[in-house]
Amino acid sequence: MLANGFGAWQFDLKDVCDEVRVRGYVNLRTDASDAAIAELATLVGHATGARSFGMVTVRGNGAGSWLPMHTESISLGESDMNELFALGCLESAPVGGATCLYDGRRAAHALAASVPEVLGVQIRYRSHAYPGEEATHPLICDDPEYGLVLRYRSQLDTNTVVNVPSAMGEDELYRTVDEAVRNALTLTHRWREGDFLLVNNRTMIHAREPYDGSRALVRCRYDDPRHRTIEIGR
Fold first, then answer.
1. Helix (H, G, I), strand (E, B) or coil at 118
2. How far apart are CA 41 and CA 21, in angstroms?
3. Which among 8, 30, 32, 40 is positioned nearest to 91, based on CA atoms?
4. Residues 6 or more apart from 88 whose CB is under 8 A from it?
5. What Cα–Cα distance (Å) separates residue 108 from each residue in 73, 96, 221?
6. What is the rounded CA–CA span in Å between residue 158 and residue 156?
7. 227 near 91, Cβ under 8 Å?
8. Of 10, 76, 104, 173, which has the fewest CB atoms closer than 10 Å, so is most exposed?
């Protein structure tokens, strides 16, 4: 199925589905407007079998530190955590602000082989944005479709490690996992207006570089139980 109506950009939706399942992400192009991004998000959601998505425009004016590495919506339980999310670019920052994607499968296998004691670690995640919401995930999850993969967010005060391995302290645990994730860097995406980055949240971990100046991204979370801004007709 070939998608048209997005300026000069055309793509095969079957290829999109295959890419995001196997590689973990795909970048598409459309016009840099809320309407065009919503239209593309709906088309992609229909092709991937999503029922709905929540759409929020996130604007910022400079950030001097990294957004920590994390699995999106990790404070939701495994059955509710969205499989896909996307970011559409309305305005790119003049300096910095790249989104970095890390392969959670590669990081999980590296950790399991080199530090097998982390296989039993579980971490409870809470959210400042959604008070009262929390979920506990195994650090290394055996996903029924993707095999061993990380469910992870870098060290924050809203994390609680349930069972720290006896051979290492909590700080060492986070340093070890962070290093494995950094070594699994797959993409450093430098934004252009009109980019639409679709990410497999079951396999990829992401972070954001510091940036200067203003920027605006549209975040779309597919099948997020908290936000069903747009229902997708079947």
1. helix
2. 17
3. 32
4. 30, 37, 40, 41, 195, 196, 197, 217, 218, 220
5. 19, 28, 24
6. 5
7. no
8. 10
Helices 13-22 and 34-48: crossing angle in degrees, nearest 10, is: 80
Strands 159-161 and 185-189: unpaired
pLDDT at 52 over 60: yes
Mean per-residue pLDDT, 45-66: 95
Contacts of 112 (CB under 8 A, 6+ apart): 118, 119, 140, 148
Q: What is the pTM of this model?
A: 0.94
pLDDT bin (cut points 50, 70, 90) of residue 234 is low
Dist. CA 191–CA 169, nearest whole Å: 38
Closest CA to 151 of 75, 94, 213, 84: 75
Residue 10 has pLDDT above 80, yes or no: no
